[in-house]
Amino acid sequence: MTNRIAAIALAALTLATAACNTVEGAGEDLQSASREVKEEI
User: Fold this and answer.
1) The whole model's pTM is what?
2) What is residue 14's predicted lDDT score, i.e. its pLDDT?
3) Which residue in 3, 39, 36 sits closest to 11, CA to CA?
4) Which residues of the chain have pLDDT under 50?
5) What are phi and psi of 32, to 5 degrees?
6) What is the DSSP string of 1-41?
7) How far is CA 22 from CA 14, 15, 28, in A?
8) What's residue 22's pLDDT?
9) Distance (Å, whole) CA 27 – CA 19
């Protein structure tokens, strides 16, 4: 039972880390796009 809980916790941590990286990358893309738009205006 302990192994199952540890495996679930590890999987949740892995997914949370991947989600954070994805959101961070999307935020950086939006910032870059907004900078380009500001330069054109």
Assistant:
1) 0.51
2) 78
3) 3
4) none
5) -65, -45
6) -HHHHHHHHHHHHHHHHHHHHHHHHHHHHHHHHHHHHHHH-
7) 12, 11, 10
8) 77
9) 12
Our measurement of the distance from residue 36's CA atom to the centroid of its chain's CA atoms, rounded to an integer in Å, reads 23
Residue 2 tokens, joined: 């302990």
Structure tokens at 37: 């738009």
Q: Which backbone phi and psi does 36 adopt, to 5 degrees?
A: -65, -40
Taking the C-alpha atoms of residue 37 and residue 16, their distance in angstroms, rounded to an integer, is: 32
| AA letter at 27 | G
